[in-house]
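Q: What changes when thiamine diphosphate is included in the input?
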Amino acid sequence: MDKKDYLELFHQMILIRHLEEQASALYQQGKIGGFLHLYSGQEAVSTGIISTRQPQDRIITAYRDHGVAINCGIPAKVVMAELLGKVTGCSQGRGGSMHMADISKNYWGGHAIVGAHLPIAAGLALGDRYKGQDAVTICMFGDGATNIGYFHEALNLSKVWNLSVLWVCENNRYGMGTSVERASAVSDIRQKAEGYRIPHECVDGMDIIKVREAAQKAIETVRSTKSPYFLEAETYRFHGHSMGDPERYRTSEEVKRWQNEEDPLGIYHKYLIENQIASPEELDELEKTAENEVQEAVQFAESSPEPLAADLYKYLYVEMPE
Ligand SMILES: Cc1ncc(C[n+]2csc(CCOP(=O)(O)OP(=O)(O)O)c2C)c(N)n1
Ligand SMILES: [Mg+2]
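A: The predicted holo structure follows.
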């Protein structure tokens, strides 16, 4: 990576952080409807992993998907418009927070049902094998999803059929209000991959440099062996599960400790300065750029039109050419 690449990663992470702070404010003003699951705290995971993919590699994730959308190259204003349910959003305002997608960027969504996108990931990889395409499907999901039947079916088939899938578990220690220890008989999550003879690794998901190294190795392994690999990223979400979570299942000391000592932005900021890749002034400048981008995104989204009622039944089925 050259300096530009390092700074681009910082820019993406700080853009996600600011975009979500603004989204949280707009939600409280009633401008965003439905659910809103913030990714703050987990930015290094998707930013690190997606920065190592090739253009042909597919990305699919769960509902905590705003950061992934930015990392896949969807402009902030298009993400914001989708959050506000506007026709200029990446899913024409029909998806909202949980259903960001853009197939032209090989981003296959944004899925609300826990674990349901894992068999879809296996299907995408099976399709690539049929077509002889050298693509890796990167499937991201939470710790909670590993207790769902779909997880086990998808992992099993991926091994039996040698599918090119990188399974990425974002272990943020909780599924809604339930800790991993209370929900999972095996709390060392990557051990679950062993049951299906899938090689695995665990990485510090708060350190983007470590995430990138692990992701590079993992993606290369999938591509060269044409079989699945399991990467667990240990991370933490800084906000509640979704908006309005009273967070009785964890202490404020625990949250503050992670926010103060393990902030992925703080860790990367320190790395860039200590390794003399950037000056504090340059990083401040990048933060200002991100803030301006978010302001412009809000203006764009607020002034964009709503989808037309007459189009309500559009996009329910694939429209075949005449
Ligand atoms: C099949 C199914 N069951 C329950 C829910 C309700 N639900 C939404 S998110 C969630 C927790 C999932 O936790 P995890 O996979 O760890 O993801 P995280 O929210 O921590 O990113 C649950 C139970 C759902 N959406 N789908
Ligand atoms: Mg979780």
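Observations recorded in class: The first helix runs from residue 3 to 28.
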